[in-house]
Amino acid sequence: MSKYDWATDAFTHATEVYPEECCGLIINLDGVETYCKCKNISRAYKTKSFVIDPLDYAAAEDQGEVLGIVHSHPDGELCFSHTDRMACKYLDLPFYLVEPKSESIIVVYPSEIND
């Protein structure tokens, strides 16, 4: 078992929606961390931002506890934006950034954000 068993699904989702940012949730589904694909409803800048469809968020919550937020930065750096960090702190959930070409994942936790 790898550290991020949900990663393959997140990488696939990021590849499917390229060049837009993917977004999704990690939920606890019967004791297994599972990736739930969500629709990015950001209107103007889907290549530079994401907004998770509230209906997708609610559907994921109905399946299990939300453990984290996942998104991608298409053709971008593998680092969190200031907006990502502030949303992580506000939502009090870990944020994961995936980059499918290199199969890289980074994570930031709310407790790590001091800005």
Helix-strand layout with pairing:
Blueprint: H1 7-17, E1 23-29, E2 32-38, H2 54-63, E3 65-72, H3 82-91, E4 95-99, E5 104-108
Parallel strand pairs: 3-4
Antiparallel strand pairs: 1-2, 1-3, 4-5
Q: Keywords for this structure?
A:
115 residues; alpha+beta; Cytidine Deaminase, domain 2; 5-stranded mixed sheet; 28% strand; globular
Overview of this protein structure:
The chain is α+β, with helices and mostly antiparallel strands and 115 residues long. It has a single domain (7-112), classed as Cytidine Deaminase, domain 2. Helix content is 27%, strand content 28%. It has 3 helices and 5 strands; from the N terminus they run αββαβαββ. The protein has helices at residues 7-17, 54-63, 82-91, and strands at 23-29, 32-38, 65-72, 95-99, 104-108. The chain has a 5-stranded mixed β-sheet. The longest helix is centred in the N-terminal third of the chain and has 11 residues, at 7-17. It is globular, with a radius of gyration of 13 Å. It starts with 6 loop residues before the first helix and ends in a 7-residue tail after the last strand. The mean pLDDT is 92.
Distance between the termini: 35 Å
Strand order of the largest sheet: 2-1-3-4-5
Tell me the Rg in angstroms. 13 Å
Architecture, CATH level 2? 3-Layer(aba) Sandwich
Domain count, please report it: 1
The helix/strand class is alpha+beta
Number of beta-strand segments: 5
Give the structure's gist in a few sentences:
Helix content is 27%, strand content 28%. With 115 residues, the chain is an alpha+beta fold.
